[in-house]
Amino acid sequence: MSSNTNKNADGLGTETLLTHHGRAPEDQFGFVNTPVYRGSTVLFKTLADLEAQSQPYLYGRAGNPTTTSVEALITKLEGAHATRLVPSGLSSITIALLACVEAGDEILVTDSAYEPTRKFSDGILQRFGVSVRYYDPRIGGAISELIGDRTKAVFCESPGSGTFEIQDLPAIAAAAHAAGARVVVDNSWATPLYYQPLALGADIVVHAGTKMFVGHSDAFAGTISTTEECWPDVERVRGLLGFYTSGDEAFLVARGLRTLSIRMEAHCTRAVELAGWLEGQDEVLRVLHPALPSHPDHALWRRDFTGSGSLFGIILKPAPRAALAAFLDDLQLFSMGFSWGGYESLCVPFKTGSARTAVPWEEQGTLLRLHIGFEDLDDLKSDLTAAIDRYRKIRLE
Ligand SMILES: *Cc1c(COP(=O)(O)O)cnc(C)c1O
Question: What InterPro entries would the database entry show (predicted)?
């Protein structure tokens, strides 16, 4: 891992920011947390006030003190010019991409992207005259060969959802900027605590705040943080599309963020331990976790990241569906469900098939995606050991 002083521009450590930034008890009668502001209408006292539009808040759709407090904190963590809280991770992606293109333009999207990112690109952007091409997540600087006059954005997700390739962001950003294209990075896995895309050359960073920021599987949120140059485009598109986040959701994001550092540390060490242990288990062909030395992008991960997320993949020996069902159906602690980032461990089968077009997924075997929560590690290992035994039994039948 690269040396990370964990100090931001103010000279304050990340943990201090997470604890103190983005709240002002003196404005809230001394109460520690910014309360939930609920509201659409914001009142003006005089015609002159209404005409001046200089109040901090004019209408609730553009934000309220609860959303602002979260945005201020994320801006610091990402080292960004500004941040917007939006209703979901997916909306942070759609807004970011729409902020970069118009009809006739082209975007390049990593083949490893979260599937709804692809569906939006194919289903909406293409319909409005934006071409979309997918590229090998491991392309690095060679992406310059794909970038043309019409290319306005390169979308990265590092590591990729489900397949966990690490991207060479500095090389991709250098190639994109040389051609005047912007770089958008989905940073949901590592969070700004362990990966700083803007410092590595990205222009826009998006998050599924639903995952690690909220941290308790009980709210939806997304964030978009940008450089000064991109901000007006992002803010214009968000405003025109009418995306709004309620004070209730924002409060849950703020609450999650206060403990993000200690949660990430626990997720990181537990996931690495389980991933390493799984590598030694019979039936497991490969573990896809960039912090393991066996991972093909381990060196890149060490260079650019200072920690790892809760999520990784495993590939089990090829077996009939019944073996997979036996593995999953009787799990006692790992639950099956989409999303991730909560305190509970999850395990889902991951289909890559049709979702890859640039580099076909050629790995044989059953791909599973695991999110490691806060249960006792020995209990989690026992749960997986029993599942692996059930899988083997049916595979060998
Ligand atoms: C879940 C997820 C999203 C989308 O977040 P939602 O809040 O569910 O819309 C985006 N990117 C990644 C990598 C995700 O895992």
Answer: Cys/Met-Metab_PyrdxlP-dep_enz, Cys_b_lyase_bac, PyrdxlP-dep_Trfase, PyrdxlP-dep_Trfase_major, PyrdxlP-dep_Trfase_small
Q: Distance between CA atoms of 109 and 175, rounded to whole angstroms?
A: 14
The Å distance, Cα 397 to ligand 1 centre, comes to 38
Instruction: Please work out whether the CB of residue 208 comes within 6 Å of at least one atom of ligand 1.
Output: yes
CATH 3.40.640.10 spans which residues of the chain? 14-258
Tokens of 253: 């994001």
pLDDT digits (tens, 9 = 90+) for 343-387: 999 999 998 766 789 998 888 999 999 999 999 999 999 999 999
Tell me the CATH number for domain 14-258.
Answer: 3.40.640.10
Could you tell me where in the chain the CATH 3.90.1150.10 domains are found?
261-395
- Within 10 angstroms of residue 61's Cβ, the number of other Cβ atoms is 13
Q: How far is the CA of 371 from the centre of ligand 1 (A)?
A: 14
Candidates 114, 120, 165, 189: which one to mutate for ligand 1, based on the most atoms within 8 Å of Cβ? 114
Is the CB of 164 inside a 6 Å radius of any atom of ligand 1? no
Residue 334, token pair as written in the block: 């790992």
Q: Which residue, by CA, sits nearest to atom 5 of ligand 1?
A: 89
pLDDT more than 90, % of the chain:
94
Ligand 1 atom index nearest CA of 209: 7
Lowest mean pLDDT among 2-6, 254-258, 352-356, 360-364: 2-6
Candidate from 112, 161, 369 with most ligand 1 atoms within 8 A of CB, to mutate: 161
Determine the topology of domain 261-395 in CATH.
Aspartate Aminotransferase, domain 1 (3.90.1150)
- Is the CB of 22 inside a 6 Å radius of any atom of ligand 1? no
pLDDT tens digits, 300-351: 999 999 999 999 999 999 999 999 999 999 999 999 999 999 999 999 999 8
Q: Which two tokens stand for residue 226?
A: 């940008």
Residues with a catalytic annotation lie at: 61, 114, 186, 211
Please answer whether residues 288 and 276 qualify as being in contact, where contact means their C-beta atoms are separated by less than 8 angstroms.
no
Residues 6 or more apart whose CB falls under 8 angstroms from that of 65 comprise 27, 34, 37, 57
